[in-house]
Amino acid sequence: FVDDEDRLVEFSAWNLEASRRMIRDSDFAAALHYVENGILFLGEESWQKDLRLFAGLHECAVVASFALGRTDEIVQHADVLTDHVPFEETLQVQVIVLKSLSLVY
């Protein structure tokens, strides 16, 4: 168990980078795995620790979830993101949410 905040942020950043690589390689299940680990490393109040890292993780989660057809996870991560990041900075995520919802209904 690691309790050093800087180390946890570093682990989270590594997971974000791995997730981005998996998205580029179209391995969306692996991308989602890395994102989920990155979010766990940051913890409950992750948006207060590193907003850019927090946003990147949740954006990758939305993209990977969309590719896997997991609408509930798309909405969940988008909601968490828009709760802490200004809406205008989440427009790309909102477009994905709308696309996923249009496929459901």
Textual characterization of the structure:
It is a single chain. The chain has 105 residues and is mainly alpha-helical. The protein is built from six helices and no strands. The protein has helices at 5-24, 28-42, 46-49, 51-67, 71-84, 91-104.
What would a concise description of this structure say?
The chain has 105 residues and is an all-alpha fold. It contains six helices and no strands.
Mean pLDDT over the residues:
91
Name the beta content range: under 5%
Q: Give the number of helices.
A: 6
Structural class: mainly alpha
* Number of distinct beta strands: 0
Low-confidence stretches are: none
User: What percent of residues adopt helix (DSSP H or I)?
Assistant: over 70%
Cα end-to-end separation: 43 Å
Query: What is the subunit organization of this protein?
Result: single chain
Largest sheet: none
Radius of gyration: 13 Å
- Overall shape: globular
- Secondary-structure element sequence? HHHHHH
Walk me through the topology.
Layout: H1 5-24, H2 28-42, H3 46-49, H4 51-67, H5 71-84, H6 91-104
Comma- or semicolon-separated keywords:
0% strand, 6 helices, single chain, mainly alpha, 105 residues
